[in-house]
Amino acid sequence: MTTADLPTEEAASTLDFDELRAWLRLAHAKGLRPLALRTLLGAFGGPLEVLSESFATLAETADARAAEAVLAPPGDIEGVPFDHYIEAALAWASEPGNHVLTLADAAYPQALLTMPDPPPLLYAKGRLDLLQARAVAIVGSRHATPQGLEDARRFARVLSDAGLAVVSGLALGIDASAHRGALEGATGTVSVIGTGADLVYPAAHHTLAHEIARDGAILSEWPLGTPARSANFPQRNRLIAGLSGGVLIVEAAMRSGSLITARLANEMGRDVFAMPGSVHAPLSQGCHRLIKQGAKLVETPEEVLEEFGFSPAKASAAASAAKRRKLRPISASWASANLHAVPASDDAERVLGALGHAPATLEILAARTDLNGAALQGALLQLELSGRVAALGGGRYAAVERS
């Protein structure tokens, strides 16, 4: 697949009420296994066709349990009446940068189709091209050491510059550093989240999620409005593994959720990489266990690139091509919904004055304006949406001069 072949925002299919209703009904049908759903879709061609079949035909094609699940009346989704949820989902998808992708869409991530149970429906924000890019996942401990955070950011930046999208889960610690490093690189990052695509968890990552939605992609299989639930995150991990050609574990304790991602990646035939550390460090124990089980020990980003078949010349060419890609705009409604309060104009003007003619970080702007975190982020968002401020790599912001 060439860059020209990659799906764009314009290439994403537009679902009408009946189509979305059919996909959601099947996606949330209790007792309908993913493999049975794929069998039915393959036999009849689409969700509307599946729903029009008789019990006997469905049972003959799959089994009686699947037929009962398909024909059962739809229930509420996250406490919202079924048809009301569809209207809300269509409204969400009408916002710039928002997409509802189904198994029938060309923009659906092709890597996930190699999984035994790909989600029938995904919610995506941002750059659809990243969902088809060659990717490496970087995951690790939420309680990472400073060295681990630095390593995750450095590896992600180098891999992104070489042309690989970096996939992670927006968690605290290693995940967040990997996303930031990839945003600093040329290709970008994909965040697979365990909540609805209209929510941000943890709340401390509102600004990071905003940057990813603008310059990368956010992906969720969960319905809009789904809050953070512990059971969702292991399932989220299988998508992280499925999207990636390999998974790098930077730091992990023996009971880390990152080891689940590594196991799932191994079961899918993906490469597993692990960084070694001190034998006395608790956060090295999980990585050492993976290495003993056959994970590839890596000490530099170049070792990962070699496993992906990148020569230095190829990596340089890929980085140049990635840098030419255009960034997608963030959805204004999503940003305002997640950052809640709209700042007063004097806050925005104060931030604009504090920026001056040189880029500045959040820490610098907070010191210059005396605004708290929420007010500062809200003011920056207002300025970005009005085109007066641009977010740069590394968490820096710059004023945009008007002609």
TrEMBL record:
SUPFAM superfamilies for the chain: MCP/YpsA-like
Domain Smf/DprA SLOG: 100-308
Annotated ranges, domain DprA winged helix: 341-395
A GO BP entry: DNA-mediated transformation
Domain of life: Bacteria
PANTHER family xrefs: PROTEIN SMF (PTHR43022)
Organism of origin: Caballeronia glebae
InterPro entries found in the cross-reference section: DprA, DprA_WH, DrpA_SLOG, WH-like_DNA-bd_sf
Family: Belongs to the DprA/Smf family.
Protein name per Swiss-Prot or TrEMBL: DNA protecting protein DprA
